[in-house]
Amino acid sequence: MTDPQWTILKILRWTADYFRDKGVLEPRTSAEVLLAHVLGLSRLDLYLRYDQPLAPEELARFKVLMVRRCHGEPVAYLTGHREFWSLDFQVAPGVLIPRPETEILVSAALEAAKDFLGKSRATQDISSEQKTGNRKQEPVFWGIEIGVGSGAVAVALAKELPQMDWLALDLSAAALAVARDNARRHGVGGRLHFVRGDLVSGLKPVPRFALMVANLPYVPRAEWEQLPKDIRDFEPKDALLGGEDGLDLIRLLVRQAQHYLPPGGRLALEVGAGQAGSVLELLRETEAYEQLESLKDYQGVQRVVQGVRR
């Protein structure tokens, strides 16, 4: 990288080939995102300004990130950002990077919310007219996310559902700090309430949450060592490894969740490939849920399992 005439297009091509030779995952995308970050441009701008030369200091900063990426460090940690649900989220080492497949969990929660919010609004309109002489009062509904991580799911849901407040739990203080920042950045900090805790163990078992969502660790131990080094060596193990079969925490939450959901409340869980059938059976065994179903992600994997509290 000593050519004094490095343009955006030339360095993109060279870096993508270099990453490919080094076995870097998504070599072209990695090159584009890192270069856009260094230059303060969008990825589209890179191609609109393809013949723009890089200043020496820009080239030096890019080279540092390129070396770190070759060692397996995830792009999101190098830039400090990750897009999720068309929103920009801050991420940091020690906090799980949001995945595209988790958007299926958000979609499922939104569909569930449309159902119970619609029914509740109709009931509220009638009761408000009777009690207040046509002065309608907006109800406040509560949702809860277990294992909030960067806050991507809870923030996305709070943005889409202004009628709801959210309780966001995580055992990691680092994750909660990042999630709080993301909530403030997206203007929903006043409706997200963050608590450090292990699942729901610190909460009174009161059926107050209309919606409970969770993306808990679900990687089985046998699969852990097979993960790409980008994940295995850099992302938090506690946020990924779910025990021998991957279901340790999911199994525990399924037993607990029914005590926090009223009749009609929805539980939605993200699960790993091949786990949906087992998690559906766990829900059946409680005899507390109906309308059980699983939803596929963009790759055709049954990614979300959900049920309605009887």
> What's the Cα radius of gyration?
22 Å
CATH architecture of the largest domain: 3-Layer(aba) Sandwich
Could you state the CATH homologous superfamily of the largest domain?
Vaccinia Virus protein VP39
The count of helical stretches stands at 12
Uncertain residue ranges: none
Shape: elongated
The helix-strand sequence is HHHHHEEHEHEHEEHHHEHEE
Please render the helix and strand layout as text.
Elements: H1 8-21, H2 27-39, H3 43-48, H4 56-70, H5 75-79, E1 81-84, E2 87-90, H6 103-132, E3 141-146, H7 152-160, E4 164-170, H8 173-185, E5 192-196, E6 211-214, H9 221-224, H10 229-232, H11 248-257, E7 266-270, H12 276-286, E8 289-296, E9 302-309
Parallel strand pairs: 3-4, 3-6, 4-5, 6-7
Antiparallel strand pairs: 1-2, 7-9, 8-9
Structure description:
43% of the residues lie in helices and 16% in strands. The chain is α/β, with parallel strands linked by helices and 310 residues long. It has two domains: 8-71, Helicase, Ruva Protein, domain 3; 100-309, Rossmann fold. The protein has a seven-stranded mixed beta sheet with strand order 5-4-3-6-7-9-8, with helices on both faces. The longest helix is centred in the middle third of the chain and has 30 residues, at 103-132. It is elongated.
